[in-house]
Amino acid sequence: MSTPLTSAAALEPAASSSHSSVLRHGRFEDAQALFTGSLFVSITMMLFAQAGLLTGSTAGVAFLLHYVTGLPFGAIFFVINLPFYWFAWKRMGAEFTLKTFVSVAMLALMADVGPRFIHIDYLNPLYAAVAGGLLMGSGCLFLARHHSSLGGATIVSLYLQDRYGIRAGKVQMLIDCTVVLLALAIVPLERVAYSVLAAVIMSMFLWISHRPGRYQGN
């Protein structure tokens, strides 16, 4: 290797370190991002519940159990995610696990309390699918950029992206569509189709917007 290239390479760590320090988020920035991301997703959950739609991952399983048992979605969602924290702690670290726990807890609370503050008399399922998919994608992106998630399959998809470079959106799309299709025995086909559309919109949004290494300083 020539001397100029060696010198340039020697300068890269310092430049990278400086760039990372600029991008690193503070505690207040993390707090507002976790709150906003959880709020966006909770609004999506309310839209989906109003339109009779589903979502994927553990939230989709929680929705199915909510429809079948009538138990609060938030409580079911919180409990289902408990086993995933061990995996997150081992594979993703303490910071990611704690932030994810806080995000899941906030979403569970907001999803159950939210209907007391907002109610929509009429909601077209197509609108709910498009708006909900984008809102959920935005919320998940907020959380991912601040080293958090909403548990379940999101933990697995972010781990595969960080470890093997597989786009989180691809993994999330596969898991979400699988969970939604399993709902055919409970939810009408038309609503399942709209739910799949929402999952595809959300995953495409993440696929395009969340790229490995773009926010290494976060």
Estimated share of beta-strand residues: under 5%
Uncertain stretches: 1-22
Rounded mean pLDDT is: 79
Instruction: Identify the overall geometry.
Output: globular
Give the topology string: H per helix, E per strand. Answer: HHHHHHHHHH
Query: What is the CA–CA distance across the termini?
Result: 32 Å
Over the alpha carbons, how many angstroms does the gyration radius reach? 19 Å
Q: Could you give a short account of the major beta sheet?
A: none
Counting DSSP H or I runs of 4 or more residues, the number of helices is: 10
Helix coverage percent? over 70%
- According to DSSP, the number of beta strands is 0
SS-derived structural category: mainly alpha
InterPro entries: UPF0750_membrane, YitT
Protein name: YitT family protein
Keywords: Cell membrane, Membrane, Transmembrane, Transmembrane helix
Transmembrane segments: 33-53, 65-88, 100-120, 126-144, 164-186, 192-209
Protein model, in words:
The chain has 218 residues and is mainly α. The chain contains ten helices and no strands. Helix 2 (27-51) crosses helix 6 (94-113) and helix 9 runs antiparallel to helix 10 (189-209). It is found in: Cell membrane. Pfam families: YitT_membrane (PF02588). This is YitT family protein. InterPro entries: UPF0750_membrane, YitT.
